[in-house]
Design goal:
Oligomer: single chain
Order of helices and strands: EEEEHHE
Distance between the termini: 21 Å
Strand content: 35-45%
Helix content: 10-25%
Structural class: alpha+beta
Radius of gyration: 13 Å
Number of strands: 5
Number of helices: 2
């Protein structure tokens, strides 16, 4: 079951930090998702049912970065907001 740990508004969108039990890993796994605003603001998951209109960028980092590091580096959230991209960033540490 998906659990939302934190939810923040930024760059005309919402960042969700989530965790779930991974059957493949046998442990809890965290990931972050940035979702740009739809015509109306939402702050819960699932996001609007029409999200298939947004392209998704899956960013897999190396062992030195976690999902939060990715969100804080290189203005990635601003670029995703400008381009209307959903960003999924799993914690790979």
């Amino acid at each position: 079951e998906l659990e939302i740990l934190k939810c923040h508004r930024c760059f005309e969108g919402t960042v969700f930090r989530c965790t779930h039990r991974s059957a493949a890993l046998g442990l809890d796994a965290c990931f972050s998702v940035y979702v740009p605003d739809a015509p109306r603001m939402h702050t819960t998951l699932p996001y609007p049912r029409d999200c298939e209109e947004f392209p998704v960028l899956l960013f897999l980092s190396d062992e030195g970065c976690n999902d939060i590091d990715i969100l804080m580096q290189g203005n990635v959230l601003q670029h995703c907001s400008d381009c209307g991209l959903i960003l999924v960033s799993p914690d790979t540490c």
